[in-house]
Specification:
Blueprint (H helix, E strand, L loop, with lengths): L9 H10 L4 E5 H14 L7 E5 L6 H9 L3 E4 L2 H9 L7 E4 L5 H10 L2 E4 L2 H11 L5 E5 L6 E2 L4 E3 L10 H13 L4 E5 L11 H20 L2 E6 L17 H16 L8 E4 L3 H4 L3 E12 L3 E5 L8 H5 L5 E5 L13 E6 L8 E8 L7 E4 L20 E5 L5 E5 L4 H5 L7 H4 L3
Parallel strand pairs: 1-18, 2-3, 2-11, 3-4, 4-5, 5-6, 6-9, 9-10, 10-11, 13-15
Antiparallel strand pairs: 1-12, 7-8, 12-13, 12-17, 14-17, 15-16, 18-19
Helix pairs in contact: 2-9, 4-5, 5-6, 7-8, 8-9
Bound molecules: pyridoxal-5'-phosphate (PLP).
The site of pyridoxal-5'-phosphate has 16 residues, from helix 10.
Length: 430
């Protein structure tokens, strides 16, 4: 099997692990910046282009600030994510608020921050107006085309079964209602798949949304100021996966833009994206140490991380590549032959707490450092405290080779922070 390259050396990993106990998430600032710039280059043909990084994928303030320095805005779904966006300096149109089943307080905060608001239903537009008093200047509408969504050469997904978005008829009604209410500008949004491979998803989605933009303009007279292609571009989790070619994707969207919008004299539409996984996924990994080995009907490698730090394998059976680095001061195993078959597991009392099943790896010893790849998106962010497991720290490898703790590990005090541990008798009335 071909191996995946690491963004750090064994020596760097040993140095970092001597400062911060394993496990921890490690992020690569240079990789994140390069990806942000590659995305912007791919869409530089569109004057208003902007990426709003999906905060849920990696809600670390240092990562968010790094992406904002690269010119990105932030895509939030809850009031807590809005607080985070505000804390890192995002204001007004730096923020896209893409929520569903939204509480009133969340809309009120989106209004206070002046965010773009992406509505999941007509009902939510009325709800927003009743709670906030006004409507946003630009209203973004989330579309669900129903049926199956077909790209150039593959069926991506079945929007029919998805809880998100409005039908085309509801979009028409929404535009008519908005014009009545004095709103002149809308955006259109759809997220129809995640972790797509190949380069055809965005161009196919763009064609669909551009066609809807033309239809809505013709039928209602509304002005479409942006099309938000949302997230969904995938990354190569498996060594054999082809990475998406963002330049080709940008060109594919450009061709659809010229054809559909250019032909309709609508070439002032800005393109927005809300990528999460594509931006940070490959630029993070979990660094963990082997605690125990065990042989029963399988050969088990027990590591010091668990699903509390990375839930994707347990939740989706997702593949994450693993590199055996070796012991500090010991031989470098990163390119050693994969001679053994292991199940790599964490310590939760759940049999699905495992990072690999029947994986070919070099021979593993207790104390070896292991790297679990591609955890920079939907990794630490999905963590939880099941079994009283405390979530790991996050470390950033800076572009100059230095590293910085950007989130400490949880402590038992964090676990108990939501409890009143005052002895019960102290609370009894006297
Ligand atoms: C999850 C999500 C994204 C990001 O998805 P990725 O697959 O990480 O690119 C963007 N927009 C919305 C509304 C989402 O729910």
């Amino acid at each position: 099997m071909t191996d995946k390259p690491l963004f750090v050396t064994k020596e760097q990993l040993e140095d970092i692990a001597s400062r911060y106990p394993t496990p921890f998430h490690l992020y690569d600032e240079a990789g994140i910046r390069n990806t942000a710039h590659a995305l912007q280059d791919a869409f530089s043909w569109n004057e208003g282009f902007r990426e709003f990084f999906a905060v849920k994928a990696n809600p670390n303030p240092t990562i968010l600030r790094t992406l904002m320095e690269c010119g990105c805005g932030l895509d939030c779904a809850t009031s807590t994510e809005l607080l985070l966006a505000r804390a890192v300096g995002a204001r007004g149109n730096d923020i896209m608020f893409s929520s569903n089943d939204t509480p009133a307080a969340d809309f009120q905060m989106a209004d206070q921050l002046g965010a773009f608001v992406n509505f999941d239903s007509i009902d939510l537009i009325y709800f927003y107006r009743s709670q906030v008093g006004t409507l946003p200047e630009v209203v973004c509408l989330r579309m669900n085309p129903g049926g199956e969504f077909e790209g150039a050469n593959q069926i991506f997904d079945t929007p029919q079964g998805s809880k998100f978005g409005m039908t085309p008829d509801q979009l028409t009604d929404a535009c008519r209602m908005l014009i009545q209410a004095g709103v002149r500008n809308v955006g259109l949004h759809a997220l129809l798949c995640s972790n797509t491979h190949g380069n055809s998803y965005y161009p196919a989605l763009a064609r669909l949304l551009f066609s809807e933009a033309v239809r809505l303009r013709r039928q209602t007279g509304i002005h479409v100021s942006f099309v938000n292609l949302s997230g969904g571009i995938g990354i190569p989790y498996e060594p054999s996966d082809e990475p998406c070619d963002i330049t080709a994707i940008g060109e594919g969207v450009h061709a659809a833009y010229e054809e559909v919008l250019g032909g309709a004299n609508m070439d002032d539409v800005a393109i927005f994206t809300e990528l999460g996984r594509f931006m940070t996924g490959p630029h993070g990994c979990v660094v963990t140490r082997v605690l125990h080995l065990k042989q029963t009907y399988h050969d088990y490698v027990g590591v010091d991380t668990c699903a509390a730090d990375l839930m994707r394998p347990a939740m989706y059976g997702a593949y994450h590549h693993i590199t055996v680095v070796g012991r500090p001061g010991g031989p470098n195993k990163t390119s050693a032959p994969a001679t053994h078959l292991y199940d790599v597991v964490g310590g939760l009392c759940e049999n699905n707490d495992r990072f690999a099943n029947g994986r070919r790896l070099p021979e593993v010893e207790v104390g070896d450092l292991l790297v679990i790849h591609d955890t920079g998106a939907h990794g630490r962010a999905m963590g939880y405290n099941y079994n009283g497991r405390l979530r790991s720290a996050e470390v950033l490898l800076r572009t100059d080779g230095s590293y910085e703790l950007v989130r400490r590990a949880e402590s038992p005090a964090d676990y108990f922070a939501t409890l009143d541990v005052t002895p019960f008798f102290d609370k009894l009335p006297h």
